[in-house]
Amino acid sequence: MDVIKNQLQQWGMNEAITGYAANIIMIGFIAVICILANWITQKIVLRTIIHIVNNNRYTWDNIIVEKRVFHKLSQLVPAIIIYFSAPVFPAYQGLIEKAAMTYTIIVAILVLDALLNAFDAIYRSFEVAKIRPIRGYIQVAKIVLFIIGGIIIISNLIGQNPLIILSGLGALSAVLMLIFKDSILGLVAGIQLSSNDMVRVGDWIEMPKYDANGDVIDITLNTVKVMNFDKTITMIPSYALISDSFKNWRGMQAAGGRRIKRSIRIDTSSIRFCTPAMIEEFRKIHYISDYVSARLDEIEAYNAQHQINRESNVNGRQLTNIGVFREYIHQYLSHHPQIHKGMTLIVRQLEPGDNGLPLEIYAFSNDITWAVYEGIQADIFDHIFAVAPTFGLRAFQNPTGHDIVQLKEQEQELVAQE
């Protein structure tokens, strides 16, 4: 500054305005240095770093570049130059240093924020991220970062020790807990969800209270994001997964089998003992031919042993069409290529009611894909409904308008014949 002032005085400039002119020249000089340094950083240093990152075999550093960590870090160069240039202006040195330091702190906070985003993105690239998500912890770290950064900025501007400001926050703890209530609850819930492995990204969960039924696509500090099967998004508070009940279908997905639990209702008036003609027909059915022969031998031996009077079908043991039909369904499912052989397979009767006798199928498909599962289930019941008349059985159905019309037509025909 003295050199510039002396030079201006040698050029004949009035001593009264020499100081102002020298300050303007120095400010311009510092500005040129800052612009030049920023250009060198952006065009040379930053491009060199990006070139090195793009041409190595690692992928994590590419994510750091994508999150613009180095770009934000380069913005510190002008602030550092301005900070160390402050003594040139003694009258404004304190103000310039505070302004430069404040800007430096803000840039440092933004750099750390970008670094946390990069760390989260790198972690998400591993499979463990689906089991142990850290998005909530990253958000807590950001909150702490911005709070500490704000305290340091304030302490820098007012010239006080940050510990003094922190001690003053004790009186505001109740207010802070009220403001960050959801975040605190979300943090506690996130720890419990993660430690107990209750939900992961990619899990299919069902929570009727929040009308959620779909896949978990994100777990954050305050919310769990669920994409429903109709492609709508449901946001569930994290702590709701701890305080309320929900269904996680991960076990089904991991087991590789999806449950089929559906009944066909049989008209009870069609249930009867098997006649010889029916038995001969059943012997021709591949799945139950051995069963029918074995059962007949067993029945004959039992009836002969106990000297059963065979003049009435009520006496002794007899084959029924519903029993043979139940065994046929069991054998049909046992040989079905899309039924899981390592899981429960039951064909059972439920309590009969006004809608007939429910014959329930309890099995598991070996493909858990929704569309495929529905197709397997539909094909099985298509077949069951089609073969039921072969066993002399009728599926129960409440009378429809068509049935009533047919009854009227039959009645009219009878009247006409009379």
UniProtKB/TrEMBL annotation:
<keyword id="KW-1133">Transmembrane helix</keyword>
<dbReference type="InterPro" id="IPR006685">
    <property type="entry name" value="MscS_channel_2nd"/>
</dbReference>
<feature type="domain" description="Mechanosensitive ion channel MscS C-terminal">
    <location>
        <begin position="326"/>
        <end position="387"/>
    </location>
</feature>
<dbReference type="Pfam" id="PF21082">
    <property type="entry name" value="MS_channel_3rd"/>
</dbReference>
<feature type="transmembrane region" description="Helical">
    <location>
        <begin position="101"/>
        <end position="119"/>
    </location>
</feature>
<feature type="domain" description="Mechanosensitive ion channel MscS">
    <location>
        <begin position="182"/>
        <end position="250"/>
    </location>
</feature>
<protein>
    <submittedName>
        <fullName>Mechanosensitive ion channel family protein</fullName>
    </submittedName>
</protein>
<dbReference type="Pfam" id="PF00924">
    <property type="entry name" value="MS_channel_2nd"/>
</dbReference>
<dbReference type="InterPro" id="IPR023408">
    <property type="entry name" value="MscS_beta-dom_sf"/>
</dbReference>
<feature type="transmembrane region" description="Helical">
    <location>
        <begin position="20"/>
        <end position="40"/>
    </location>
</feature>
<dbReference type="InterPro" id="IPR049278">
    <property type="entry name" value="MS_channel_C"/>
</dbReference>
<feature type="transmembrane region" description="Helical">
    <location>
        <begin position="164"/>
        <end position="191"/>
    </location>
</feature>
<dbReference type="InterPro" id="IPR010920">
    <property type="entry name" value="LSM_dom_sf"/>
</dbReference>
<feature type="transmembrane region" description="Helical">
    <location>
        <begin position="140"/>
        <end position="158"/>
    </location>
</feature>
<comment type="similarity">
    <text>Belongs to the MscS (TC 1.A.23) family.</text>
</comment>
<dbReference type="InterPro" id="IPR030192">
    <property type="entry name" value="YbdG"/>
</dbReference>
<keyword id="KW-0812">Transmembrane</keyword>
<feature type="transmembrane region" description="Helical">
    <location>
        <begin position="76"/>
        <end position="95"/>
    </location>
</feature>
<keyword id="KW-0472">Membrane</keyword>
